[in-house]
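Why does residue order matter? Because the sequence determines the fold. Keep that principle in mind as you read this record.
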Amino acid sequence: MAQAFQQRADIGFVQPADEFMNPVGVAERNGGLHLEDEIGVQAAAFFAKTLGARRRFVLVEWHADSRYKASGSYPARARKQTGKTDMIHFSRAAVLCVAILAATPTFARDCGPDALGVSRTIAIGPKGAALGLQSYPRTLDLADREVVLTFDDGPAAPTARVLDALAKECARATFFIIGRNAEETPALVKRAAAEGHTIGNHSYSHPAMTLRLLEDNDAKADIEKGIKAVERAIGDKTAPFFRFPGFADTPALVSYLEGKGYTIFGSDLWASDWSPMSPKGELDLVMSRLEKAGKGIVLFHDSKAQTAQMLPDFLRALKARGYRLVHIAPGEGETPIVEAGPGWSSTTEPIIAKTLAGKSKLPRGADPGAEGHRHPAGDD
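Structure:
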């Protein structure tokens, strides 16, 4: 059986199986259907969602027996553990029907050449690590003018506007979700996942005393409760990514998460959006920091209205100034990491030490309280 086409589709985009390139789509050619234009991007996304959110990738193949075969598979690591692979066959008419739906504005947003888009996706390997130069002496190995967008503390009222801005620019980000918020607003977490964003974890309660000042078992319980809450909200496993509330980790908790295969993300620069400012003020601040750093993992909060208002201008500024957006997602192999240069020091530790000065660990089993979306990193 001759096979004219094989391609892997990450939800929302279609990409060649061997490397990441420009999206292609469904078209009629020489009596057969081939994926070669924008329509197929959303057709493949439809297939992926039809197979279920637990199937991260979908293979769409054209076969000589006039059928598209969509093969949904677990991520490689899970597939090795379970050996599961599901197959669904789509008729020629069904594929064309989906292609027509994909071309309509209600099915997907058409992003033209002026959109920021995603330049590439970095696969974060299963070996745990702690990244982000503001907290750790290593970070992702990014090229100059490459940016990774991350958002903390959602979902919240401004999150929908953040998602709208990202969708308009065909941009993808990673959301570090508070479990309690996911329980209150699961639809926004589901939407973020369905639109191709990576869903990470940010504890259950975002404790006012930080995880650092909880007893070790209580901190672990808050982390695990948060993961379970987010997974219930999306009906799927989250990415094995974690960000400590207020960056206040401990060596024991870092070791615990790394031992479970989690990558811990700090940041390379932040927008200081926990401090009240105008959207224009926030834009100017974060762009000045990005111009100085030249690249990096950027931290925002989708719980902040000023950030949601600022984001469209920020995404356009990235495009105008020649920055390229990089998405992160779980994968196999080694995570591309670069070590900090000589003289590195933590930006976050002195701030955390000042914030927590004079405070003691809570007794075991005490209510950790809720942070209320404040941030212990001050106004820096």
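The first helix runs from residue 39 to 51.
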